[in-house]
């Protein structure tokens, strides 16, 4: 399963709770300056939240990092989670239908939302 985790600004949370499909529509690929400004208006950079996530996963024995890609690998179950952290989103790839990283981020704040890719 591949998905993105984004952090929605407080003033848009109520609207997205009523219309959850808006998150997919509001988050653009940021191919130009206009799209980047739109993302900055609605979504919050993940600075502190990324640090919290990194601290929690870096303590694990199965954590590895290589050229901007964070990875968790369980050799017993052969489950692998790959993370790429950007300014406004976290790209996640997990085996099966799991969303462990999203669940962990949602514990930090109700403002985190998942966008399927």
Give a structural overview.
The chain has 117 residues and is of the alpha+beta class. It contains 5 helices and 6 strands, in the order βααααββββαβ. The longest helix has 12 residues.
Write down how many β-strands occur, each being a DSSP E stretch of 2 or more residues: 6
Number of helices: 5
Distance between the termini: 8 Å
Mean of residue pLDDT values: 90
Features:
globular; 117 residues; six-stranded antiparallel sheet; alpha+beta
Topology:
Blueprint: E1 2-7, H1 10-18, H2 22-26, H3 33-42, H4 47-58, E2 63-66, E3 69-74, E4 79-85, E5 89-94, H5 100-108, E6 112-116
Antiparallel strand pairs: 1-5, 1-6, 2-3, 3-4, 4-5
Give a nutshell description of this structure.
The protein is of the alpha+beta class and 117 residues long. Helices cover 38% and strands 29% of the residues. The chain has helices at 10-18, 22-26, 33-42, 47-58, 100-108, and strands at 2-7, 63-66, 69-74, 79-85, 89-94, 112-116.
